[in-house]
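1st attempt posting a full record on here, be nice pls
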Amino acid sequence: MMNPVHPGKSMPKLRKLLGPSFRYRLNPNAPTKEERDEAKAEYPTAAAEKEASNKRLNDYRDALLKGDAEYQRLRAEYQAAVKRAGDLAGRSRSYRITAGKAGSMGSFSTFWVEAEGDTWGEIVAKLEASKK
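the predicted structure (as tokens):
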């Protein structure tokens, strides 16, 4: 049986399969297969209990607060402030041009942002400055 703490003779095969950037991590507190199987079997019941409890809590809270005019006023005020702050945050971080590198991680396409600006000149200047 292979030592679970070190890949041993599997190391060359792992390096071949995963390439030169292959790394691994160990979790000494991980459950055994039997413990994982038990948790997996119990999870659906626990998740359903959690959701039912959360629904009861939310229904009760909503019933209490529905008739509270001050709460409703404060909630509307807060929602308007959240919307305004979110809109301004987005606008303050949006540029006309984003330049970067495309790649992939398994089946996921990726895009690493290298520079953002409103003109190509700004993009070139930012990229040149980052290379220094």
